[in-house]
Design a protein that fits this description.
By secondary structure, this protein is an alpha+beta fold. The chain is built from ten helices and twelve strands. It is about 40% helix and about 25% strand. Helix 4 runs antiparallel to helix 5.
Length: about 325
């Protein structure tokens, strides 16, 4: 029994060595594995190491060998993939510092100690404090699987950094359809049977999510179209518009709306784009930054809306100068 237990421990220790101490640039020779096992008080010979590696391979571990170099374990993820995941998690301010650290620790386990220093994301100093986003995601994913409504409370943060619940703390009851990520935040897209329409809610401002018990049928819903009609996840009616951009803004337009955006006219100086999306304040602000390099061709209502926003900004500056 003692020998069997030692054999199992040796097998697991070899696996740990390959996971943590080796990669394709730092393979472990059989002699090095034997030396590391000896440091742990485990005796081994080359033949037994070869046998243990064969057992691990049969169990599904993709152990590679480089002639005259040694053994290494092929990872499930490349270092580039892990880097993207690590930076993405680190940039999510809706996660607490502990949650971000736990995520990164899990990612570190997917690479060798030689690669781990390259997975140290620059964590933002500011992290939002609010609802437990991970717990909310779990609840909503369960509601999506079971096709049931959810109840929750929704809050804002006041200038005094206190929670203020909407609807005088009364609960919302809505039918969740999807989770969507935008600007480092997650939103739950829901359908309201009372208002007969879709809207979205920030997960970090939802609390006390409770699942209802009765499954409900779903109506057709196109998440891609819903997201495309939004701008910064700001809720407003979509507007069909035609915009004329300076040719120098082509990459900016493609970065924001994708390369499949509808271009209706191109010249040596500019190009026209047809869009249907929310003409909310975030969109107007986005247009403002380009100054004379963008023109609204239609509709007239959007021109009026832009002019009113510009005049309001000028009035604000005039009032500030007068004060």
């Amino acid at each position: 029994m003692a020998n069997q237990r030692m054999q199992k421990q040796k097998l697991l220790e070899i696996l740990r060595l390959l996971q943590q101490e080796a990669d394709n640039e730092h393979p472990l020779k059989c002699s090095e594995i034997i030396a590391r096992l000896s440091q742990k008080g485990m005796s081994a010979e080359r033949k037994s190491v070869y046998s243990d590696i064969d057992i691990l391979r049969q169990a599904g571990w993709d152990i590679r060998y480089q002639k005259n170099q040694g053994y290494w374990l092929k990872r499930r993820y490349t270092l580039a993939q892990l880097k993207l995941l690590s930076d993405a998690v680190g940039s999510l301010t809706i996660l607490s510092a502990d949650q971000a650290w736990q995520f990164n620790t899990l990612l570190l386990e997917e690479c060798s100690r030689y690669q781990q220093p390259q997975l140290s994301p620059l964590l933002p100093e500011y992290r939002e404090s609010g609802a437990d986003v991970l717990a909310n995601i779990d609840q909503i994913l369960k509601a999506l699987r079971e096709n049931v409504e959810i109840q929750f409370r929704y809050f804002d943060i006041t200038v005094h950094k206190q929670k203020r619940y909407r609807r005088q703390s009364q609960t919302y009851q809505l039918f969740p359809y999807a989770l969507i990520r935008e600007n480092q935040r997650y939103y739950c897209v829901c359908y309201s049977f009372h208002h007969h329409g879709f809207s979205h809610y920030r997960l970090d401002k939802m609390e006390q999510i409770q699942l209802q018990s009765e499954p409900l049928p779903r109506i057709p819903f196109d998440l891609k179209e819903y997201a495309a009609r939004s701008f910064g996840m700001y809720a407003s009616e979509p507007v069909n518009m035609t915009l004329r951009f300076d040719l120098s803004l082509a990459n900016t337009v493609f970065d924001r709306f994708g390369q499949d955006v509808m271009i209706t006219r191109i010249t040596d100086q500019d190009f026209d784009v047809n869009l249907t999306l929310s003409a909310a304040p975030p969109f107007l602000g986005w247009l403002f930054q380009f100054g004379q390099k963008v023109r609204i061709l239609q509709p007239q209502s959007l021109k009026d809306q832009m002019r009113e926003a510009a005049e309001a900004a000028l009035r604000s500056l005039d009032e500030e100068s007068a004060g």
